[in-house]
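Standup notes
- DV: blocked on the single-chain target, sequence here:
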Amino acid sequence: MRGNWLCPALLIALFAGSVHAKEQRVHGYVTAVHGPTSFDVDDYRILRDQSVTIEFVTDDDDQNAADYPKDIRVGSEIEIRGDYDGQTHELRAKSVKVYTRESRKLKRAAILDQVPQLYKKGTYWAGSFRADGQTIVVDEATIVSILPNMSQKSAMRREAKEAKQAALHGDLAQTAEQMLSRLDDVHVNMYVSYEGARLDDGRIAAKKVQFRDNEMTAAKARLWKSLAPRITAFQGTRPGELNLGAAGRYKLTPNAEVQKYIRDLGQRLLPASQRGLAPGDPNRIPFQFFVAESKAVNAHSTANGVVVVNRELLAMVETEGQLAAVIGHEIAHATQEHMLRQMEFHKKKRMLLEIGAAVAAAYGKYNVRDLLTLASAAIKNGYSRYLENQADRVGMEYMLAAGYDPREAPRVWKTMSSNMGDRPTDFFWSSHDNNTTRRSYLMSELAVNYKGVEFDSLEKDNPEFHHIRAIVGGSYSNARAQHEKAVVRLPGDSEPKQKGASAAKPAPLAERPQPTSENVPPPDLRPLDRLATFDPNLKPQIPGQLAARAPPPQPPSPQPAMRNPQPAVPDPWPSAPTLDRAYEALRAKDYETAIAGFVVSITADPDRTPVRQDLAYTYLKVGENSLARSQFQEVLRRDPNNAQVALEYAFLSYDAKDVATARRIFDRLRKEGNATAEQAFHNIDAPLAAGIDRWKEAIERGANDFSAHYELATLAEQRDELPLAAEHYEKAWRVLPDRRSVLVDLGRVWKALNRDADATAALLAASRGGEARAAEMARELLPTRYPYVSEFRHALDLDSANVELRRELAFLLLGMGHPSEAEQEFRDLAAPPANDLLAVTQLGFLLYGRGDHEAARPFFDRVLAGNDEDLANRVRAVLHVQQVQEKPPDAVSAKVMAERSIKAGYMKDALKYLQLAHEADPDDTDVMLRLGWAYNLLHQDVQAVYWFGLARQSSDPKIAAEADRGWRNLRSATEAFRFTAWLYPMFSTRWHDAFGYGQVKADLRTGLGFRPYLSVRFVGDSRQTTTIANGPPQYLSESSVIVGLGLATTPWHGLVVWGEAGESFNYLSHHRLPDYRGGLSLARGTGHSLRAETPGWFADIASDAVFVSRFNKDVLFYNQGRFGYTAGPKELRLQLYGAANLTLDDQRQYWANFGEGGLGIRFTGSFLPPSMYFTFEGLRGVYLVNEGNPRRPNFNDFRAGLWYAFTR
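- DV (later): unblocked, structure below
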């Protein structure tokens, strides 16, 4: 008997093991060590048998490898392969590699954020200091020196030359290093480089420390200039634009509240070393912070301090602490000058490798090309990984200095993993490590470098963040974790918490009702997943999957008979019952039709709770969680004993951040024996209780600030400890009485405590408090009727400084015929500290109206002396005194206001002020010039040309020159007729011939999106070829003059569509042929053009598709790409570039199907006309079609040409 069941049991056990365990590779940093065979890497518990040996990986040329520790410790970089059990999160290692990078001799550089706390001890320096997110120990074995920067070296060289110390020239850089003699020579924002080894406690025992003054080098200045931000403000809901030059363009989120929130948060995170620096200080970085409309989950920063947070990332992070970690990381990139350091460090290596890769690719040596490309990527990405780690370390320092819990930094990557997966990428092709590696690195840094920090006293979240997050929305704003929940073990956590948990917020629910089906997702089901087993064949019954997730429900009742819809509700299916068609649509997964049918049915018969329940599940199918929640709420109201619907409503309430409602429902259900509700209740209640105790203890120790009381009140309300919540909401508001949104919270709690009078008073004060969002929230909770006088007085007893509230009461009393009571309220408003000018005016009117003119006089004098001309004119009208017209602003103040508006990006306001300035001083040519630029920025070029034309007559040569340049640039685009001409003579060794191309064109501006034109083209060559067999193909030399009439669209993002008809005159054969041609042309460029202000990288592409009737109605496709570097001064500017060209045609003629690539150079100078330049290219090409090709399949070509164009 035993043998009969033993074998199947073993098979089942083996099968179960194979289901739960899968081989996996984990690369990261050790975050906790439990023993010789057990340690953690992020969420993974690594178990190692004694039989599995550890491989310690060192560099081949590392002479100190034998001295490195041969054990696993917190912070060790490690790679494990083994079998992973998704249920226990254990990985049984088969192989273990430990990288000794962090154990070897470290050599790093950083920017100082604080002055080192060192002291002189005899002949050496001692002490320790924080830099680079590390604690660096200095002792008698440490060499501490100071180095000159580039400017100082240049000065020393000049001094040496002047002193004729030629012998020192060659070794100046070495002899310039000096031992540090005074700590006063060291200051913040200096470079510090250190070498040393890591101690067992995580600190760095430095062998050498060098300080160097930072400076604004020419390279840094060029980089900053190329990234100078140009901002176009948003108008209404239309996004603005942030143009960062070489770093690209960003659409700005059109919400001032969101932008201000990010700006304030960024300023809070700035290090002390950046605060208070004068605008001209070379160490000052002019930080600016923006939110961009991008669906990429990312953030960016530039060398000159522009930090851009994408809207989707803002929607994805879960707490303000996580957002602070992201922004602190980006600030660190700027303060540590990562962009400049990476450019300088890799410039020569990367350029040599990329040139080698281009040459190898051109000659088809793919193995060499691939190796060179991989090597280039490895160098670039390797340095980027080092910089990313440094930004992580320094960013956590900024978080801690700003009062944020740095443990939120690794939780960013936990949130990202939950929403996007771990995304393991190829080592070479990603400058950022995967989420597990990044997360474990941060956690190991927390464990090693932040010992003794009281994490729980630091800020993790803020209600304002969730308000902003709700505004921006995004794909992740309401998303639930799609992956398995695991345990995160962070330093300072007394007990393991769920992923993403914080002290101030409950952890995401770890347990959901368990489906019995094997193919459903893990327990943390999203709302969409909860409908995975929904059987649409069940009409108004309880959905099928509910029976698998809860105690068995009662047998489904028969479907109620359909009632006829009300006449006001249209029936979209007059030929069949609406509900049947809804279920048919649901089975066909036509959810929109099904939803429409369900809505019609429940509108006709609101008591159909089963149909309403199915509507809720269908809403979940399409991601409408809030609509689903409202339907579940309605079902629960009609059927309070429906435990399954209550459970669903509780889960959705938790998703909607209504923690109190979710906790109450889970509490009720757990008392009825529901195990799922029991687990969910404890997952919510335990963190709330712990948080309340922690904030109580903090307040007892003296933390009497707003945050302490507000956080305690928030947690108490979520845990239904309403008296405690009311007490501390009121205390928090007393600390910050202008924060009247807290009065809304207080009123809501008092209302729940049945303190209706107090609740109305608090809500009434909030509704008249001047805080728009709080006022709107308060009005939603107030009765729909107008408040009584007694309610106003009760509210003023609570908030006596509320000017708006008292003023409204005064006017109410006046309207009710109680002038004496109204007068007393006006007197209170007129007295300090309110000094309300409107109340002063009304009080004067009351006194004047009853004949007490002398008593009214002082109040009228106050109004006349005030700054409100409208109120003053009303007083003058009562006194029968001539009213004063509001003076227009003078030219100077209008110009100042215009300048401020331009800087803020409000171009329409700037235009208004500039027009006022022109009216005040019609001869001011500077105002005319500014008007021209303002109209140009508003795309009103006709008006811009007019103002530029006036300004170019200025006696100031600078204004005249700038206006003339603007006038010339815009005149041709705004005139009715425009004449353009271009020519391009070229010599080609491939054809041993010189070719000439040119065109003269006159077009008419219609303002309708297209231009009719008259064109004369010339296409010919010096050998005067007449046939393809004797020379180059037809498309290179037609030996013709072509006259045509055509239409062309105005350029749109570089795209032009054109077509023309005319005649071709062959100047050799004297033949005349009809000529019809047309096509599309696309030209785009980026970077530093040949005539740009500064050198730099550039890229451009030109693509054409052309139909030519005389080429046997052929269609030709051309694509020309250039990528290279613009170098040299403007007097002699050149471009070195790589070229790649492709030509195709639809008739597959050999001469029209080829590709070519190579290197080229273009140059121009100030001695040449603006649009003239010379080109030289060396190309290697291959024919793509060789049928009928009399030549070899490959060719070489050297081309030299001259381009010139002008417009009149």
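- Follow-up: The mean pLDDT is 78.
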